[in-house]
Amino acid sequence: MAGVSWSGVRKEYGSVAALGGLDLEARDGELLVVVGPSGSGKTTLLRVTAGLEALTAGSVAIGGRDVTRMPPGRRNVAMVFQSYALFPHLTAEENIGVGLEAREVPKAERRRRVAEAARVVGCESLLQRRPRELSGGERQRVALARALVRDPDVYLLDEPLSNLDAQLRIQMRAELKELHRRVGATMVYVTHDQVEALTLGDRLIVLDGGELQQSGTPDELFRRPANRFVARFIGSPPMNMLPAAAADGALQVGTLRFPAAPARDRPLEVGVRPEHLGLVADGDGEAEVQLVEPAGSEAFVHVRLGGQTVVARVASEQRPQAGARVRLQIAPQHLLLFDRDTGERLEWKL
Amino acid sequence: MEALDRNDRRHLALMLGPYLFGLAALVALPGLVTFGLAFFEYDLIRSPRFIGLDNFRELVRDDIFRTALQNSLVFAAIAVPLRLVAALGLALLLHRRFRGAAAHRSAAVLPTVVPDIAYGLLWLWLFNPLYGPINRLLEWGGTAQETIWGYPSPQWLTHPNDARAAIIIMSLFTIGEGFVVLLVMRQAIPRELYELAEVEDADWLFVFWRITLPLMTPVLLLLLARDTILSFQTTFVPALIVTEGGPPPYSTTYVPNFVYTTGFEYLRYGYAAAATLTMFVLTAGIVFIQWRIVRRWRRAFVV
Known about the structure:
The complex is a heterodimer of chains A (350) and B (303).
Chain A: E1 4-13, E2 16-26, E3 31-35, H1 42-50, E4 57-62, E5 65-66, E6 77-80, H2 92-96, H3 98-102, H4 107-121, H5 136-148, E7 154-158, H6 166-183, E8 186-191, H7 194-200, E9 203-208, E10 211-216, H8 218-223, H9 228-233, E11 240-247, E12 250-253, E13 256-258, E14 268-272, E15 277-281, E16 287-295, E17 298-305, E18 308-315, E19 325-330, E20 336-339, E21 345-346
Parallel strand pairs in A: 3-8, 3-9, 6-7, 7-8
Antiparallel strand pairs in A: 1-2, 1-4, 4-5, 9-10, 11-12, 11-14, 12-13, 14-20, 15-19, 16-17, 16-19, 17-18, 20-21
Helix pairs in contact in A: 4-5
Chain B: H1 6-37, E1 40-41, E2 49-50, H2 54-61, H3 63-94, H4 101-113, H5 116-126, H6 133-138, H7 160-171, H8 176-188, H9 191-199, H10 204-234, H11 236-243, H12 255-265, H13 269-299
Antiparallel strand pairs in B: 1-2
Helix pairs in contact in B: 1-13, 3-7, 3-8, 3-10, 3-12, 4-8, 5-11, 8-10, 10-13, 12-13
C-alpha cells in the first residue's frame, strides 16, 4: 500500500500544456477521483503516473519512492483502460494472469491467484471464455480482476465504466466502491462524469485545461465550490448563474433584493442550484415558464427570466404549466456569490 | 438483399460484363484449353493428336522435369518462410511513426514495383563475380576470389548451389505486398494492448510471442498460402535473365522455365500443358495440406 504524490507535474505536447504544473496527492488507501471535461488533462495525469508518458517537468512518487524516470513495469501500478485492453486471443483466465505470466510467476501459483482475483470480482465462471464471448460488464470484471491479481501499490482506472450502459454503470459503480472498501488500496479513478465522481470518491480533484480547480471531499466541492467552473461542473442540472449588483448595502439580483452586500466593489454574479430555486405562481411574476421536463418524483422547469434561462428542480406535484407566469424565490443561505470577472467565489455573510 | 428491378439488373450486367469477359477469355478459357491439351500431342503445325496419359507417363521418367520440380520445391521451402519473416520484420520495424518513416516504407516496397526484367538485369550486375558489388564487398580485406575468412567467394552465376541461392536472395527483396499488408495489420492492433503489456512489465520477447505474433497469425497464414502459390511462378524471370536456367545441369531450371522451353522452344505444347497441370495440382495440394495443418492450431489463435 502506498500513496501517490505529484509535485509540479507538467506535461507539454508541442506548445500545448496538457498539465500545467500540478501539486497533488492521493493518500494511502484513498479512492481519489480525478474529474474534468474532455481535454482537462485527467487522462494525461493517469498516463504520466503509469509511466506511459514522460513528464516535461516535475516528479511523481509512489509510496515515497520517486518513480519519475522508472519504466511503467517497475512502478508496481495496475491500470484499467477505458477499452479494457483485453487480449482477444487469450481466455479470461490468461488475460487476468498475463501480468503474472510476464513476470514468470509459476503456473500453479498463477492459477491460484487468478482464481482468487476472479472470485473477488465475481467472474470465476467466465475464466475459459474469450473476450468476444463476454458482455461489456463481464469484460469489465475481467479487466478489474487483472488489476487485482497483481496486488499493486496503486490502481489507475481510466474511465472504466464509460463503455457500459446506464443501468450496468450504476451497478458496477456500487461494486467498485465496495471493492475499494474491501481491498483498501490506493486508487486513482479518472472520469468525466460528475455524478460518478461524487458517488465514488473519498476525495475529488477537479481539473480544467490542465489546471487544478479544486480538491476536496464531494460535500466540500458541492457546497463550497472554489469558482464558477467547479460550481457549474459539479451538480446536475448545473447551477444557475445570474448577474447581480451591490447597491446601497444590498445585493440586487433581478427584482430580488437581499439585505446584505459584499464589501468590495466589483461586478458580481450569484449562483443558485436548481433545487434551491423556488417558483411561486403569480400572474404578475417577472418570469415565464418555458419548458417542463417531468422526471418521476421531480420535474425540471426551465424559466425565462430577463433574457436568460434558469432551471428549477421542483417536486412533481408542484410543477407549473408551460406558459405560466411565476415569481422566483431564493433562500439567501443558498446563494453563492462569484466575482463575475475572475469566476472566484466570494465569501459573504447575510 | 432487396430484389433488383430490371434496370438495376441491366446496370449490373453492364458493369460486370467486361470483367467477366476478361476472366473468361484470358483465364478460364486458356485454363480449360491447357487442361485439355495435356492429353494431346500438339506442335502448332500438325493437328492435335489424342494420346491419353502418355504426356504424364513421360513426365514421370523425365529427369529434367524432375530436376525442375525439385528446384521449385526447394525454392518454395526456403524462400517462402524467409520472405514472410523478412516482411514481418520490416513491418514491425517500420510501423511506428518516426522521421523519415514514409521514405523507409517506400524503400521497402520499391523493389517489388520494379519491372521483373529490369530487376533481373540489376541483379546480373550485382552478382557479377568480377566487378559485381556483392563479391567486391565479400572479398573486401581478403584476396581476389577469396573472402576475408579464406573461403572462395560465391560464384553466383556458375556454381549450381550458389546460383540457387542467388535466385532465393533475389526473391527476398520483392516482399512489398506482404510488407504493406503486415504493416497495416500491425497498426490495427490497439495501442492499449501494448501499453498494458508495458505496465505489466512484459519484455519485448513476451510481447512478440504472446501478443503480436498471435494477433497477426491469421494474416500470416493467408500470406503463407499466397506466397507458396506465387513462389512457383516468381522464379521464372530471374532464372531466365540472370542464370538462364543454368549453370549445368539445369541448376536453376524451375517448372515454369521447363514449361516455357518445352512449349516455345521445342514446340511440344501438349507436354508443356501436362507439366503445367502437374504444377497446378501440386500447388493446390501443398496449400490444402498447409491449411489442414494450421487449422487446428489456428483456431486457438484467431481472434
